[in-house]
Automatic annotation (TrEMBL):
UniProt xrefs under SUPFAM superfamilies: Homeodomain-like, Regulatory protein AraC
Name used for this protein in its record: AraC family transcriptional regulator
Single GO molecular function: sequence-specific DNA binding
CDD domains: cupin_MmsR-like_N
Domain HTH araC/xylS-type positions: 182-280
Organism per entry: Candidatus Olsenella pullistercoris
Lineage start: Bacteria, Bacillati, Actinomycetota, Coriobacteriia, Coriobacteriales
Keywords: DNA-binding, Transcription, Transcription regulation
Length: 284
């Protein structure tokens, strides 16, 4: 029977906006060792170095799903999600993990197909997977390095994570469909500050609005309107965090000339008003 081994560290070097680790560690579990049920405030990624185990998670609509996992696979826990994970009785797993978050993390993960309803990591590139694990091990072993050094390796980990997973457009659609989605997302990123609509985005791709909406959601996992709002709110968070602009000016800068409409949209995405979000996230 293997001994239980645990090593972990927390990141205590201040707050970073785009990407920040909160903790990282490694654990060799004993047979049947369980963690949870628990809820996290940030994203938590586990990669299974050896052995097997079971992830029990609530997914969209509070549906409870069990995932049996083994060496070479991984799982992503989402903010607010309730999970329990248990080591196999015969081949208990050893895993390494990183808890992280950032303004663009949600979109980047969704763009490669890692969502609440699809949280299992299965790499399409053994080379990129190996580099990802190397960065995870590096963070665990170099916990006393400087903040910028650790942030840099966190960026490398995240880059290898998203690049080692096949893009949804390659799994679910043709190269032509992938082209349409890239066109649409590019148009949103270039014009989110203006009063654009789903019709404008569809027109840019040359597709019928109805067909475009169905195609976009099947590939990206969200409707074009949801993606547009989410992108605007991400940019709004950047402005709230990094500038002293009044809330009304922030709203106008991301395509909402009406402050009330902006505040409602912001709260629908982040659960709090722009003013409250700024209070919680800006150091005083």
């Amino acid at each position: 029977m293997p001994d239980h081994e645990l090593e972990f560290s927390t990141f205590s070097h201040g707050h970073f906006v785009d990407l920040m680790p909160f903790q990282y560690g490694r654990e060799q579990c004993t047979p049947g060792h369980a963690f949870g049920p628990a809820q996290r405030s940030h994203y938590l990624f586990h990669y299974i170095i050896s052995g097997r185990g079971l992830l029990m998670a609530t997914e969209e609509g509070d549906v409870k799903v069990n995932h049996r996992l083994e060496q070479g696979e991984g799982f992503l826990i989402f903010p607010g999600q309730i999970t329990t994970y248990v080591a196999d009785l015969d081949e208990p797993w050893e895993y390494i993990w990183i808890e992280f978050d950032g303004l663009h993390v949600k979109d980047d993960l969704e763009n490669v197909g890692l969502t609440l309803s699809s949280p299992i990591y299965r790499s399409q590139s053994s080379e990129l997977r190996a580099r990802m694990v190397e960065e995870m091990r590096y963070l665990v072993s170099n916990r006393n390095a400087s903040a910028m050094h650790l942030i840099g390796h966190t960026y490398l980990f995240f880059d290898y994570l998203v690049r080692s997973v096949a893009h949804p457009s390659e799994q679910q659609g043709s190269l032509l469909q992938s082209f349409y989605i890239r066109e649409a997302i590019g148009y949103i990123k270039e014009n989110y500050q203006s009063d654009i609509s789903v019709e404008d985005i569809a027109r840019q791709t040359g597709l019928n609005r109805s067909y475009f909406g169905k195609l976009f959601k099947s590939v990206v996992g969200r409707s074009p309107q949801q993606y547009l709002i989410g992108y605007r709110m991400t940019k709004a968070c950047e402005l709230l965090k990094l500038t002293a602009l009044p809330v009304a000016e922030v709203g106008r800068a991301v395509g909402y000339p009406n402050q009330l409409h902006f505040s409602r949209a912001f709260k629908s995405v982040h659960g709090v008003s722009p003013r409250e979000w700024r209070r919680r996230n800006v150091d005083t």
